[in-house]
Amino acid sequence: GTKDFWGLCFSLAGLLFFIAPFLFNITHLSKNPDWVQAFAYAAAARDSMLRFHQFPLWSNLFCGGYPLVANPYDFSLSLFFPVVLVAGEIAGVKLAILFLWLSGFFGMFYLTRNVLNYNLGGALFSSLVFALCSWWAAEARSGNFTKFYFCLLPIVLGFFIKTGDDRRFLAGSAVVLAAMLFQAGFVYFVTLLLLFLYSFTELFRARPKFSDRTKYFQRFFAVTLFSLLLAAPRVLPAVELLQSSLSKPHDRIQKDY
Predict the structure, then answer these.
(1) How far apart are CA 19 and CA 35, in angstroms?
(2) Mind listing the pLDDT tens digit for each residue in 135-171?
(3) Residue 68 belongs to what H/E stretch?
């Protein structure tokens, strides 16, 4: 409604004011090692596409030759690769963080307002508390780019809860989970753990049929399988690289990766 719209606008203005310092000098190259690493992976993928006109399956810029597509931090299969291609590796990564940050705000509003049926004040308060958490600012300063994928957690949880009434939300949950897995495997597995715990708590809710209490477990396994299938272009090369590393323990470079 109108109240929701204006409430979101005013809250969003406050959030953008909070984020604004991060966007100053958007093309500034930080000396932080984690930031440099994120920019380097983005630059390698971008250079392969724009300079050599080929998809970055392999890069000669890392370790004298490295299967870039198998690296979990690679940008080539990321949701934000088009942004990196257009804006550049530095501005592109920072704009990706901005998008994830805003997704966390709107995702929390969707979860609380549309799924959990909070009133407007409660939904806006929850959204601002989540988005203005100092942990995000600390991660932005330290360069832990992939941890910003935790901003997608409210959207995943909202879609997953909705699957109890509408199976069409299974696809939405799986797509967002796959987006995590393409570049933030750690976040993906933590999110799966939280969805599993939610499914477990549903076993103890008072429902007339046992099948109604276990339906979220069925949804959980379906979403997990679907997300793994969607992210197979990342998962399969990563598994192959891991097997190669384990089979050659004397190769220090491969072992480290």
Answers:
(1) 17
(2) 998 888 888 889 999 999 999 999 999 988 888 899 9
(3) none
For tokens 């004298």, name the residue: 64
Identify the three-state secondary structure at position 10: helix
- Look up residue 96 and give its amino acid: A
Over residues 47-64, the pLDDT tens digits come to 888 988 888 888 777 777
Alpha carbon distances (Å) from 147 to 6, 30, 125, 169, 179: 30, 18, 23, 24, 13
List the structure tokens of 189. Answer: 């597995």
Residue 6 and residue 17: Cα distance in Å, rounded? Answer: 17
Token duo for residue 120 = 């407007």
What's the full length of the chain, in residues?
257
Which residues fall within 8 angstroms of residue 166, CB to CB, at 6 or more apart?
A: none
68 contacts 56 by C-beta, under 8 angstroms: yes
Q: Are 187 and 180 in contact (CB under 8 A)?
A: yes
